[in-house]
Amino acid sequence: MNRQQLFEQIRKKSSYLCVGLDTDLKKIPRHLLAEKDPVFEFNRQIIDATHDFAVAYKPNIAFYEALGPKGWESLQKTLEYIPADVFTIADAKRGDIGNTSSLYAQAFFSQMRFDSITVAPYMGEDSVKPFLEFAGKWVILLAHTSNAGASDFQLIESANGRKLYEEVLLRSQQWGSPDQLMYVVGATQADKIQGIRALAPDHFFLVPGIGAQGGDLEATSRYGMNKQCGLLVNSSRAILYASGDKDFTTRARAEAQQVQQAMHHLLDSILGK
Ligand SMILES: O=c1ccn([C@@H]2O[C@H](COP(=O)(O)O)[C@@H](O)[C@H]2O)c(=O)[nH]1
């Protein structure tokens, strides 16, 4: 899916919601554990309940890897089940020396056919480039993350006065265009988003941190939106585990719809109808 198509989906659904598929066997409703593949069954029902409010799904790969071969199988089945007009993100945070990165890219883009993958930028250009060589695919580089530890390294200032995350944003723009590169920018420190948008005016941002982490959707949107929206705002636990019982799909749907409604108003008020 290219940038224009992504924007068209955002306009069509009046939503820039990404539902995070962080499917945890300890948290899904008990009755699903009797299914042959409880993880896929949970995801299938969540996708059915939310896809009209979501423009992206983001399985966090850790939740599947942790289950061994069965987890990879559930992931593949989930990916195949996601409707073709919905953007897919492998939240894998990969990145290694070039030849290894090439194989990670092959795994997620050729074998598994995700639209995009999250990549850690800290091994530098040669670790990111192999992902960018896949035509039609997206790299989502970690820039300013939503966790408390983001300040440990990302806020360190170099001699030129730039913080590390600013350096990531500026340098990486020489490696790929806004048609293939997005950035992870956490919603938990909305005060930073305006400055980040100034450094990367045209790129999409994947924004985790609303919902369970308490980030601010309104401030994120007001400071972070560009003329093509430029935001995919993720919520995982708040939607997936809105109920741990048999009504989990109804509650997940209501939660996703509530976020979509807020996004609908924000899109209208920031971008116009
Ligand atoms: O900076 C980051 C980068 C990635 N994540 C991931 O997003 C989701 C958030 O889940 P919630 O349940 O909505 O808090 C999860 O997969 C994280 O690993 C992030 O939170 N922050």
Automatic annotation (TrEMBL):
Catalytic activity: orotidine 5'-phosphate + H(+) = UMP + CO2
Enzyme class: lyase
Listed pathway(s): Pyrimidine metabolism; UMP biosynthesis via de novo pathway; UMP from orotate: step 2/2
Domain of life the protein comes from: Bacteria
CDD domains given in the database record: OMP_decarboxylase_like
Record-linked Pfam families: OMPdecase
Enzyme active site: K93
SUPFAM superfamilies named in the record: Ribulose-phoshate binding barrel
BP GO terms, sorted: 'de novo' pyrimidine nucleobase biosynthetic process; 'de novo' UMP biosynthetic process
Family statement drawn from the similarity comment of this UniProt entry: Belongs to the OMP decarboxylase family. Type 2 subfamily.
PANTHER family associated with the record: OROTIDINE 5'-PHOSPHATE DECARBOXYLASE
This protein's name: Orotidine 5'-phosphate decarboxylase
Classification of source organism: Bacteria, Pseudomonadati, Bacteroidota, Cytophagia, Cytophagales
Gene that this polypeptide is encoded by: pyrF
